[in-house]
Each structure stands twice: as C-alpha cells, then as structure tokens.
Amino acid sequence: MLAFIDDAVAFQAGRATDLFDHLDNVPVVTLRYDIASYEAAKEAEPIASFACDAGIAFRFELSDAQKDLVGRYLAVFGNTPWGDGRMMTKVFVKRLLRRAILDDATAIPPEQIARLKAMSPDAVVVGGTLQG
Questions:
Q1: Where are the domains positioned within the chain?
Q2: pLDDT in tens, 68-101
Q3: DSSP-based three-state secondary structure for 56
Q4: CB 103 within 8 A of CB 129
Q5: pTM of the entire structure?
Q6: 3-state SS, residue 125
Q7: Backbone phi, then psi, for 114, in 5-degree steps?
C-alpha cells in the first residue's frame, strides 16, 4: 500500500513540476503502479490490479498551448511568488498541469495497454509507446 501511495505522490509531482519556469524540461518517472489508469478507472478495482512489476515509465510534458498560456500570464504577472499565486487564481489549475505520457509500453502487460487505450480510444502504440 505504501508503494502505491509513493507512486501516486510521484505521479502528481511529475504533473506539477516546473509549471512556471524550465517549461521545456520533461520529467520522467518510473512507477510500480499505473496511476494514470487508476485515476481513469470508472469503477473501483483492487489496487493490485494496477501493479506493474516491470515498472511503468511516464514522461510529463507541457503542450505548446500550455507553454503559450504560461508565457502570456508571466508577461502580465511576472515570475515572482506573487505572480505565480495570481496565475493560480486566474487559471483553471488543471489546464496548467503536465500531461502524463506513457514513455515505454514494451514492459506493460497487454491487459494494462488495453485499459490505457480504453481511457484514450484514439491512442495507438507506436514503437512501444502509447500515443494519442
């Protein structure tokens, strides 16, 4: 259970890393649990069903639209603690969080790939990476 909580914290930290500076940095986190699928699950499932013994790597990226949005807000409010606080009150925070992108699907059991594709029907596996 503690490993799952550690992974959930690491996943959320990856999403919230460098939101106002170092925008091109791409944090990569390898987890023991598929937190993205856990969050997207429509019905409660045992935590063990999200375990991935081989590990599951996520990249956390900002889209160009997110970078543009942050740039516009930085131009208005500045890159200070006060400016960052103002941005957080003006923007729906979820729009600022980095997207979790499955980094390598080669080590993921087929049932977990199926679950990820179910949460994102347009996703495809290309070169071992789930995209879309």
A1: 2-62+98-131
A2: 988 998 899 988 888 888 888 888 888 889 988 8
A3: strand
A4: yes
A5: 0.73
A6: strand
A7: -60, -40
